[in-house]
Every structure is written in structure tokens, then in C-alpha cells.
Amino acid sequence: MRINPATCIDCGACILACRYDAVRSRTSSTSDLKRFKYTVAIPSSTLFTQFGPDVMPWQVAGGLMAIGFDAFHDGTIMCPMVSRALDTYLSECRGPWPKISVTCPAIIRLILIRYPDLVPHLIPLHTPRELSAKLARRRLAARHGLRPEEIGIFYVTPCAAIVQSIFRPVGPHASHFDGSFSVAELYGPLLKAIRAGASIPEESFDPRGLVWAQAGGEGAAMRNVNTLSVTGVADVTHVFDNIESGAFRQVDFIEAHICPDGCVSGPFLVEGRYAARHTLSRLLARLEERQSFKEEVVRSLFHDHFFHMEDEIGASPVQPLAVDLREAIRRRQEKQRLLQRLPRKDCGACGAPDCATLADDVVLGLATIDDCVFLRLERAGPARQENGHE
Question: Which one, 133, 188, 198, 361, has the greatest CB density within 10 A?
Fold first, then answer.
């Protein structure tokens, strides 16, 4: 089987589905850390939901430093700031409505490929994780007298989509991260370090961004209550189809996630999503707001374009069978003739997900009709009889 990068949205479903572990995400390794003089870990807020409600975030942060990172940077502190920036953006922009969150890279890829008309609906602001990396590099370079390229900033991610957004950005802008580690691959060493007593000062952590870990958290943190949260491929495509048809214009903001419960159900997590949600609710109930920021600071940063993406996001729709209309008709007719020959079992044995995709690949010269196992068996039958085999 092949992965077609033109249609892949980096959701990571193939990693979970493949029982042979043939598909893996390109995360970083310990050798990547050695390329930098100073290394920083910025974890997803979902990391703090993986160790039960009795393990505090500052213990997890201390564990990251204990297993080899030079510094921990709290990315959750940027979440409430982005929430205020989103409120400011929605109050000043003029549409088109509804605006769509860019937190989930798989959602952006889905829109670029399948819904290019919805590209203007995407929020043109950076995510909290990218802004955290941008700010951390700037501050640490000044504090330690280092060049920005001497600092390696790594994200601890719950999903493959974010990994891909670092190596293959979903927009024209480059990522501010130098690599990433999955929560699952760091879980064991982190748990050992936490049990050994690793920790950082409590006051260095701001818990308000933890709510972003679950679906609906981004919208809940905003003052604009006219928001909608949707999760899962089926429901997301249903909503996006309706937006293309003119529906949901009364909604200001849509928070969409490919995973069923948002980031807290990412494929790179260890805890099941129900246990993680329980831990998150317990942590939010126990932690009080420990830090605050001035609203005028966020507004000033917003108007200085600190939150804004450097370039506009452009669509990348799947290429048609042909650009020339006459050639496209000829190829479409050829595809129909191929489909009449194929068994339409959609077994996937040829490497394509169904017979229609195989026919497309044959027309485009990416495969041959002989890739179909059933057609090969049909031709092999008479040949075997001629050779005296039953």
C-alpha cells in the first residue's frame, strides 16, 4: 500500500489501524537533542492528563528536565492569551462566517484538500504551541546569550498531525519547533522521574490553558459564546459540507477536531480518553488561577501582529484527472471501462482502498490493471488448466 500525500490529512488513523506497525510518525530522537547547545521541551496540555489526578503539572514539568531537557517552557500560559486575541479578532473582522479554528493541523489539511472554498474562513492567527516556541526562543536567546539556531525547541505531542505540521507545515509559514516527541515514547521515563520526586516551583505553571486539551475547551475559554465545537471525521465533514451550502452563518467560531474528544484523545497518548478527561476535570477543579495578564497587553500584541501568521494559507485541492476538458472526458470514460472490468469488491489487496481508486491510479499511470488480484486469478485459471493443473 502507498500513502498518497496529495490526499493525506495527517490524521494518524493509518498508524492505529495497521496491525503490522508498518506506518510510523517521524518523531525526533535523542540524537536530535545533541545538535543544539540548549534544548527546550514544550508539552501539549494533554501530557498533564496522563498520570492521574494526583500528579500535578509542575511534577511533570520537572520530569521533562530530569530526563534530559535543559528547560521546560509552559505552553499553556499562551492559551488564555490566544483566547483573548481570538475575541479581539472576531470583534474586528468582517467575515466570512463562521471562522474556523486552526488548532488541529489535520482540520487545516482537510480544508486545503477537500474544502478550498473554506480557506478564507480559517483564523489567520498562530496556535498557542507555535507562539510559545516563538516566544521561548526569543527570551532564552537573550537570557543565555545564545544564537536562536543554537536553541532546540521540541514539542511533546499527542498526535501525528502536529508532527507533520512541524516537518511539513500546513500553511506557507515554517514551524518555530525543531522537532517533536510523542507522549507515548516519553511516558515511561517521565513516570520514573516523577516517582523519583522531580518537580519545578508550583508558581511557574499557569493552569488556565489546560481546558484547551479537550474538545470545546478553546471556545469555552473565549468570551464570545457564539461558538460551536465539532469532533470526528464524519461530523466535521458534515458541518463543513453545510458551511459550503451556506449554513452556520449565524455562528462566529467553529472549533473542529479530527479526534473524537479533541487532543485529549490523540493517538499518541497512553491513557484512554475517558480516563484522561476524568483526570483533566479533577485537575481543573483543584487548580486555581495562579497568574494573570493585562488585557491591554494582549490587545497591544494583537495590533502589533504578534499572533498573526506571516503569510496567508493557500488551498491545495486534489488535482483532477486532467486539466484539458477533452482529455478529462476521455480519462473519465477510460475509468468507467476499467470499473466494468474490476470486481468492485473493494478488498484493498491491490494497495488501493477501493476499486474506484485503483481505476484512477491506472488512468494516471500510477498502477496497472494487473494489480487486481482477482483479475490475475481469472487469467491464471485457464493457463493452469492448459498446463494440466486443476
Answer: 133
E strands along 227-291, which residues?
A: 227-231, 253-257, 260-263
Low-confidence ranges of the chain (pLDDT < 50): none
Residue 20 lies in a domain: yes
Residue 381: enclosing H or E segment and its boundaries?
Answer: helix 373-386
Sheet with 71-72, edge to edge strand ranges: 71-72, 38-43, 151-157, 179-182
Residues 198 and 242 occupy one common structural domain: yes
Could you tell me which residues come within 8 angstroms of residue 55 by beta carbon, excluding any fewer than 6 positions away? 48, 194
Considering the entire predicted model, what is its pTM? 0.83
Tell me how far apart the alpha carbons of residues 31 and 91 are, in angstroms, rounded to a whole number.
Answer: 46
249, 97 contact by CB (below 8 A):
yes
Instruction: Give how many domains the chain has, as a whole number.
Output: 2
CATH code assigned at 381:
1.10.15
Give per-residue pLDDT as tens, 221-262: 888 779 999 999 999 999 999 999 999 999 999 999 999 999
Strands (E) located in the chain: 38-43, 71-72, 99-100, 151-157, 179-182, 227-231, 253-257, 260-263
Q: Are residues 103 and 243 in the same domain?
A: yes
Question: Is residue 252 in some structural domain?
Answer: yes
The residue range of the domain holding 169 is 13-303
